[in-house]
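Hi U.,

Before I forget, here's the chain from the pilot set. I'm dumping it here mostly so it's searchable later in email.
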Amino acid sequence: MEDLNAILTPGMLVRHPDMPDWGLGQVQSNIAGKLTVNFREAGKVVIDSSRISLLPVFDG
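Structure:
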């Protein structure tokens, strides 16, 4: 599977496909397949991009 999270850069908005209650998240960093995202309802979460593909949000 191709790592679609590789295109995510700090400042981009995302959603977690399995955790809609976390709300909108903002990418803080994307280093070596580990994404740090600050979600409105869950706070700061580190995501392993080999396991979860986040959904980019372009309409804010």
